[in-house]
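Saturday, quiet lab. Running sequence design on the structure tokens for the scaffold JK sent over.
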């Protein structure tokens, strides 16, 4: 049953790709330029919401690209907090339910749109 559902989903997906390709092939050069521009704008908006705005001063350490590094502030779990571990011992573990043991630290996440690498500092 599951195999039949997966097969049907694959067929629908392939037909949708085929129909879209036929639409693109039938476009005039002006419509094609407009369509490609809209796709590029959509991709840029998605990357900006996911990785932040482009920081023009940064250079990617992986590919040495300029004007392609996006940065945003994030909070990352970096380890066990000593204060939280002590509170867990004193309360018999009840405080773990409320706060957990992880310590969060503010960091900057960077993403290069050129080589698609992501790192934090």
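Result came back. Writing it out in full:
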């Amino acid at each position: 049953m599951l195999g039949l559902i997966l097969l049907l989903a694959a067929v629908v997906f392939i037909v949708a790709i085929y129909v879209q390709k036929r639409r693109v092939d039938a476009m005039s050069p002006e419509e094609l330029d407009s369509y490609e521009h809209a796709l590029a704008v959509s991709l840029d908006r998605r990357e900006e919401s996911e990785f932040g705005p482009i920081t023009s001063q940064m250079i990617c350490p992986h590919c040495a690209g300029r004007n392609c590094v996006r940065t945003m502030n994030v909070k990352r779990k970096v380890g066990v907090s000593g204060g939280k571990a002590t509170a867990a011992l004193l309360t018999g573990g009840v405080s773990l339910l409320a706060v957990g043991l992880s310590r969060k630290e503010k960091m900057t996440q960077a993403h290069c749109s050129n080589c698609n690498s992501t790192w934090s500092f």
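Notes for JK: DSSP finds four helices and three strands in the chain. Residues 2-25 form the longest helix (24 residues). Ask whether to fix the surface positions before the next round.
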